[in-house]
Amino acid sequence: MISLSGILNIYKPLGPTSFAVVARVRKLTGEPKVGHGGTLDPLASGVLPVFLGKATRLQDYLMQYPKTYRASVALGVSTDSYDAEGAVTAHGDVSAITQEVIQDALRAFRGVIKQTPPEYSALKHNGQPLYKLAREGRSVEVQSRLTTIYRLEMLEFTPSALELEVECSKGTYIRSLAHELGQALGCGAHVSGLVRISYGPFDINQALSLESLEKAALSGDLSCLVQPMDSVLARWPKVVLLDAQVEMVCYGEALELQMPADFEHLRAYDTKGCFIAMLEYDSEAGVWHPKKVFR
Fold it and tell me: In terms of Cα–Cα distance, which of 228, 238, 242, 229 is closest to 268?
């Protein structure tokens, strides 16, 4: 096994947890430092970026990109977990639900919205995951929070189900969206299927199956599948540093750069094109500090 640093665009199938996928990637690559960008529930599939080696230090930057999901929503049935895995809590009448009614209801869920995460989620209360407390029958008041729905489209509709495509910011729960839509329609609803089709620069059409990853590991071609660690940083401006500036960055010294301060971060490279560091702007001092150094 060789040490790898970079990102794998993995297709997570239905069934395993995101943690189980990370464990399998760790075993196949032999890389001890492995992490994923954004949890997918066992009943969800799709794009799961997996970070290897030094790239694990860049996971936070991925979270600033939008995600796109395709959600199957069952109408007329509410569950305690807001998905098909939970216990049914109520049934509702869907006879009056039409495409026009749904389109009208969807308007309230576009843009910046206030959303309440599900009680069955990995969010923690006093150090305990909410789903663990919920399974123990301990009720906790979950605080609502702001999130952004950039795009929300209805793709298909039947009297008892619909297909949605959602582009959203970090912290958005599609299960909560389905539940709250069901409440707005007056019939109840839950997520019956969920696929993440993109996450920032990673798309489902280029995602690797675990089987293809295993074949590549056996044939020694694994490194060809690993994307460079800076592939997740394309949205931030690039600056090329002179050798003396590279040395300053490696020693943690700030730089004065003739760069617009429209962005809080810069990705820095040396004159040979090697990725060196992420720089963060200090508006008070007018300088760029090394935020994360990879030289």
Answer: 238
Strand, coil or helix: what is 88? strand
Residue at token pair 């007018």: 286
Q: What residues have CB less than 8 Å from 219, skipping those under 6 apart?
A: none
Asked if residues 67 and 38 have their Cβ atoms less than 8 Å apart, the reply is yes
Over the stretch 101-141, which tens digit does the pLDDT of each residue have?
A: 999 999 999 999 999 888 765 555 455 555 554 454 556 66
E strands in the chain = 6-12, 34-36, 44-52, 67-75, 77-79, 88-91, 111-115, 124-125, 128-129, 145-158, 161-168, 189-199, 202-203, 238-240, 265-269, 275-282, 287-293
pLDDT in tens, 149-205: 999 999 999 989 999 999 999 989 999 999 999 999 999 999 999 999 999 999 999
Token duo for residue 285: 């001092």
Closest to 279 in 3D by CA, of 234, 236, 229, 247: 236
User: Among this protein's residues, is 41 annotated catalytic?
Assistant: yes
Is residue 162 within 8 Å of residue 192, measured between CB atoms? no
CB 96 within 8 A of CB 13: no
Write out the H or E segment, with its range, that includes residue 62.
Answer: helix 59-62
